[in-house]
Amino acid sequence: MNPRILFLVPLLVASLAGCRPAVDDRFQGYVEGEPILVAAQQSGQLTSLSVERGDAVKTGESLFSQDRATEAASVSQARGQLAQSRAQLGNLATGKRPPEIAVIEAQLRDAEARRNLSAEQLDRQQALVAKGFVSAESLDAARTQLARDEAAIAQMKAELASAHLPGRKDERAAAQAQVLASEAALAQSTIRLEQKSQHAPVSGQVQDIYYRTGEWVAPGQAVVSILPPENIKVRFFVPEASLGGLRTGQTVEVHCDGCPTPLQATIRFISTTAEFTPPVLFSEKNRHRLVYLVEAWPQPKDAAQLHPGQPVDVSLQLARQ
Length: 321
Description:
Layout: H1 3-19, E1 26-33, E2 36-39, E3 44-49, E4 56-57, E5 62-66, H2 69-94, H3 98-131, H4 136-163, H5 169-194, E6 197-199, E7 204-209, E8 216-217, E9 222-227, E10 232-236, H6 240-243, E11 251-255, E12 263-266, E13 311-315
């Protein structure tokens, strides 16, 4: 063999070994966000919109409102019905009013006066009958009148005692049930009125606005979407050979274009089903061909550095337990 060829073989082997690709400890992935959709709970026209796309909102901040005239009228009606029910219950609990009791007392005094007059008439009739000046029929008539007057007195006394008593037990129970029903109706009307104004259930960034002021919104239709930082996650794909070294709770590092330092993330889910690499993932040399619409809203949290749909690299080399 030519000595020159023998000399070149080691160099060729070394050259080929140097051309082998280095083991890559990074896996391609992308950022995904799961926004919270805030929907209208009642149908109605959108009267106000307090946020715009890209705004940072905090929990409890106002997002939008709908026309609430009908619900406000229902609340006023329910309040009136509740006041009426409570008044009826109070009336049954206290008996008759003082003026009504005064009328019964006056009727009792009148009946007592008539009874006294009838008693005097009976005494005179008895004396006249004894002397033979009047017939026995006149005496019977006087006795009957006295009995009537005494019965009237008994009736007035019973009415006076009843006037001081509260309503019957069944009547009061019915009135109490009516009060509870009126309170429930008021609470329901108030809830429907409050549902006309929606507030942010979480803190985050407004991702999109689906309706504008003046448009009609049906129940269940999303009006605003909010992406909280805790709902931003990184999805990456690992070959089968590297799967055995991963487990939930493990820490990995996320590298993204424009990130000054790698970001740490914790594995929460490992799929048990294999799949093909998604076509949305491109190699690093082709990544410069991708363009993104960026709406910059700087925030101090790490999650704010990641944008849904952004390609990233995930490193396991510096992973910590």
